[in-house]
Amino acid sequence: MDHSSQLLKGVLDMCLLALVAEEPSYGYEMAHKLEERGLELISEGSIYPTLSRMQKAGLIEGYFVETDGAGPPRKYYRIVDEGRQRLEEWKREWFRLQKGVGTVLEGDRA
């Protein structure tokens, strides 16, 4: 596993929660959205366990939608109030961390 995928694995929960906050989605759709936004290192195999864990934690809820006879129903996920609160916390933490890492990588300019 390279450094990029290790870093991404550490923020996958936050990224998936942000996608579900935009609109309800199903796993394959989320993988595609992540790829479109430049995070192509995420596989569906890592998305579904993460979604299951977030559902058990009460951050999202799942529900099934019929596919007009084109296959089995798809499980969609939507964010719940606790998930919205957690996402806001994670975003604040992320931007604080991002700023600190940027400062370290740029070196002490003082």
Structure description:
- Helix content is 63%, strand content 13%.
- With 110 residues, the protein is of the alpha+beta class.
- Strand 2 and strand 3 form a beta hairpin.
- The protein has 4 helices and 3 strands.
- It has one domain: Winged helix-like DNA-binding domain superfamily/Winged helix DNA-binding domain (Arc Repressor Mutant, subunit A, Orthogonal Bundle), CATH 1.10.10.
- It has a 3-stranded antiparallel beta sheet.
- Helix 1 packs antiparallel against helix 4 and helix 2 crosses helix 3.
> Care to count the β-strands?
3
| CATH class designation | Mainly Alpha
Oligomer: single chain
Helix content: 55-70%
Structural domain tally? 1
Rg calculated over all Cα atoms: 16 Å
Mean pLDDT, all residues: 89
**Architecture (CATH level 2) name:** Orthogonal Bundle
Distance between the termini: 36 Å
Strand content: 5-15%
Question: Tags for this entry?
Answer:
single chain, 110 residues, alpha+beta
